[in-house]
Design brief:
single chain, 165 residues, alpha+beta, two-stranded antiparallel ribbon
């Protein structure tokens, strides 16, 4: 498949949750950039993988830079989760995808599935919209913590936040 899309389209992520355990979960992350999912064991690892994907894409751009006392760039430690292929003419406004939108629709977690669309990475966190696929509900979030709380609320039957628009 040689379909090229904008970084904004490529940055949409599907989070599949395979298992909830206490206040944590594990599962897989799907992107259109590769056919195989990236597995995560806990919330912290999931957040790190998502950040790595958006860093690799360069979209959305961070408003703050991570600092390091060792002199090594933080992003150097996290490379290799995904790779980005640009058109042969060298333009950076399109990225090659491995999965079509229809193929992405089929990717699901065993328990729940969420679609995360990040619009901004400001104030050292994320802002965007999350869709709970099983209930077809979409709500905005203002931080990674709020995203985690929204996803966690689906397991705890505290879904009042999913009623806002």
């Amino acid at each position: 498949m040689n379909l090229y899309v904008s970084p904004a389209v490529a940055s949409v992520i599907r989070i599949g949750i395979d298992e909830y355990n206490d206040s944590d979960w594990n599962g897989r992350i799907y992107t259109r950039l590769q056919t195989e999912p990236v597995f995560y064991k806990n919330i912290g690892e999931m957040l790190e993988i998502l950040e790595n994907i958006w860093d690799t894409l360069g979209y959305p751009q961070e408003s703050t830079m991570n600092r390091s006392f060792t002199g090594k760039q933080i992003s150097e430690k996290k490379k290799g989760i995904i790779s980005v292929t640009y058109p042969e003419d060298g333009t950076k406004d399109k990225i090659k995808t491995e999965l079509s939108e229809a193929d992405m629709e089929k990717k699901r977690g065993e328990q729940d599935t969420f679609i995360v669309r990040i619009q901004y990475r400001q104030n050292a966190t994320w802002q965007g919209h999350v869709t709970w696929v099983d209930e077809n509900k979409t709500v905005p979030f203002r931080s990674a913590l709020e995203l985690i709380k929204l996803i966690d609320s689906t397991q705890n039957d505290q879904t009042d936040e999913w009623k806002r628009e």
